[in-house]
Each structure stands twice: as C-alpha cells, then as structure tokens.
C-alpha cells in the first residue's frame, strides 16, 4: 500500500475519502534543463486521479492553503 503525504505540510492522506473535510489536490512540477536555461512548469489537475499518484514529478497537497504555500516556496527557490 502507498502512503500519500502532503508535499507542503507532511499530512498523510486518509484511505477513506469520506473522512476528509477538504479534497486533496494533485498536480505536477516539471523542470527541464537545456543549454539556454531552466524551464519549470507547475500544473494542478481539477480532480484527484489514483492512477497518477506515482508519476514522476507528481505533487500531492492536502488543501488550497498548502497549494499556495507550495507555489510560493517554489518561486523563492527559482
């Protein structure tokens, strides 16, 4: 069994969706390097997809606040 944790706060995702007060958000954070520089693309999906949780560069956040914190943190690192 896979344990999903929030990439911002570390909270574990419940396996029982009915117990969740907020819907988890899934996305991807891709970074591509080439000879002219680095390009980063952060995209969020409109729904949770269990088939995509283990994809390379997948993002899992537990709330809209953690999503905003994730984006802010990545801007500071760029």
Automatic annotation (TrEMBL):
* Domain of life the protein comes from: Bacteria
Name by which UniProt lists this protein = Uncharacterized protein
State the species of origin: Candidatus Korobacter versatilis
